[in-house]
Design a protein that fits this description.
The chain is of the alpha/beta class. The protein has helices at residues 2-30, 50-63, 76-79, 86-93, 108-116, 144-161, 181-193, 231-248, and strands spanning 70-74, 98-102, 127-131, 166-170, 202-205.
């Protein structure tokens, strides 16, 4: 009986050590960029819907051979390169062995889940272009600081898994016809996220003025629903970042 109790105690000790080790590992993952101790929704990995899972597995198939030089990470705005932005994708990104990792409706936490489940495993792209966070800004779901935390957490994950990949953070695009609290929240979140740009491995670019008129109006002939670009909007986007993309991919 004594021997059996000793084995139970020993087993519990081993389990405790394993648990503490896992906790420490998780802690290490969330430490960079002032994220230690942050537990809000924007930094907590979460999955979503059935179609979303299918797209996720589609991405895994695309990266299976490891021949990826550019990844585009984001939400429906990036996802739209499959549709309204298809011509721009074929012109600028398909020739660069690019993978579209934009998922409609995604928030920072969904990108984190995808990264935790293989989407950037086994690849080493030259460049990752990231624009995420506008869906986090809906209502009172997340504050500007929390959205920035989420963007930083996504970057931290990429720096860990893709140490040779340069990251280009794009400021969250403007939404709604006129300046408003939600647009202001996104602008503030983008600026806070830009603090981690070191111009060595992480870069930040704000092209929002390319979409707006002088008085801050977002024209419907660029974003018909005042959120998602049409073909003209994708052209503005692709052309605005192209010099930076060329530079970061070592093409000039």
């Amino acid at each position: 009986m004594m021997k059996r109790n000793q084995w139970i105690i020993l087993s519990l000790c081993v389990l405790s050590i394993c648990f503490l080790g896992c906790t420490e590992t998780q802690k290490t993952k969330t430490c960079p960029y002032g994220l230690e101790g942050k537990t809000h929704s924007a930094v907590t990995p979460a999955d979503r819907l059935d179609w979303w899972g299918k797209r996720h597995y589609g991405v895994l198939e695309q990266i299976a051979d490891g021949d990826v030089d550019l990844i585009y990470v984001g939400d429906s705005i990036t996802h739209g390169f499959d549709n309204a932005g298809k011509k721009m994708w074929e012109k600028y990104y398909a020739p660069r062995n690019a993978v579209n990792m934009g998922f409609s409706g995604d928030r920072t936490q969904h990108v984190l889940w995808r990264f935790d489940h293989g989407e950037i495993d086994g690849i080493s792209p030259k460049l990752a272009i990231l624009m995420i966070g506008t869906n986090n800004s809906n209502g009172n779901d997340n504050t500007a600081e929390e959205i920035a935390d989420g963007i930083k957490a996504v970057c931290a994950e990429m720096r860990t898994k893709l140490p040779k990949t340069k990251i280009l953070i794009l400021a969250i695009f403007p939404r709604n016809e006129k300046p408003c609290p939600q647009r202001e929240k996104n602008a503030k979140a983008s600026l806070m996220a830009s603090e981690i740009a070191d111009n060595d491995m992480i870069y930040y670019l704000d092209i929002n003025d390319k979409f707006l008129t002088a008085d801050g109006t977002l024209p419907k002939d660029i974003m018909p629903d005042l959120l998602h670009p049409n073909e003209k909007g994708y052209q503005i986007w692709a052309e605005a970042i192209e010099p930076t993309v060329q530079k970061l991919m070592g093409e000039k």
